[in-house]
Amino acid sequence: MMKFVKGAVIGSMATAAAMMMYKDMSKNKRNKMIKKGKQFAKKVGML
């Protein structure tokens, strides 16, 4: 259970940070960030 809570907190923080970066960036950089974000999520083990 604690693992799930910890994962949920980290996930929501990562999502919030990603949304902030997403709003700041131009369209071209956004696509790269989305790709990197997905790769990072896989490394962390969320997907």
Summarize this structure briefly.
This protein has 47 residues and is mainly alpha-helical. The protein is built from two helices and no strands. The longest helix is centred in the first third of the chain and has 23 residues.
What would you note in describing this structure?
The protein has 47 residues and is an all-alpha fold. It has one domain (2-44). Helices cover 87% and strands 0% of the residues. The protein is built from two helices and no strands. The chain is elongated, with a radius of gyration of 12 Å. The mean pLDDT is 75.
Give the key terms.
about 45 residues, mainly alpha
- Taken in chain order, the helices and strands follow as HH
Major sheet characteristics: none
Task: Indicate the mean pLDDT.
Answer: 75
Strand percentage: under 5%
Please compute the radius of gyration using only Cα atoms: 12 Å
Apparent shape: elongated
Structural category: mainly alpha
Would you count the extended β strands for me? 0
Query: Unreliable runs, pLDDT <50, ≥5 residues?
Result: none
Proportion of helical residues: over 70%
Distance between the termini: 18 Å
> With helices defined by DSSP (H or I, 4 residues minimum), what is the helix count?
2
Characterize the quaternary organization of these chains.
single chain
What is the domain tally? 1
Map the helices and strands:
Layout (H helix, E strand, L loop, with lengths): L1 H23 L2 H18 L3
